[in-house]
Fold Small ribosomal subunit protein mS23.
Amino acid sequence: MSFMKGDLLSRTRKLVKGLAKAEPVWLKAMEQAPPATFPRAGDKIQTITLPEDVYVKKFYKKYPESKYHDPIKFCAFDPPPSRLFALRVLELKEHGISEEQAMSVADTEYRAEKKAKKQAYKRLKEIAHLQGKRPPPNPYPNPIKEIQAEERKYVRDRFFNPKIHEIVKQKKAEAESFRSGFRGGDW
């Protein structure tokens, strides 16, 4: 509908000109002093990118298992490894190191930190075993296992929830009635 395009003044002019509406009292005053028009945003909204986003993507190409860490939490107390890697690369580049060297240094530091965390947890488990205690929970868990632990209660709930048992019985009855309709030769 082309008559709906434009601002209030142009739409009203079109309606009056097409005799679809009587001329309002305010039209002449508004034509003499039209309202201010504000520029519109472009058709496409630009995505917000941070300087380190390029290196975050490169990190995920090299370490796809880290994708499950939340990269959005860049202001958290414990930012995800991808952000730390990218910020370290930017820091090294500011000191005049080339991009390739900065990435290799940041990669080496990341792998060393990851190895140190694994060794520390291994030592914690050994100490707990020597003391005869249960080992502590992993302070550096796999993000996939964290997600699965959150979902576990919902998965187990399906075995014990009586409402779900009723739904299963209804579905089985529907399937049985559907199958019996074919056996009876109704078709």
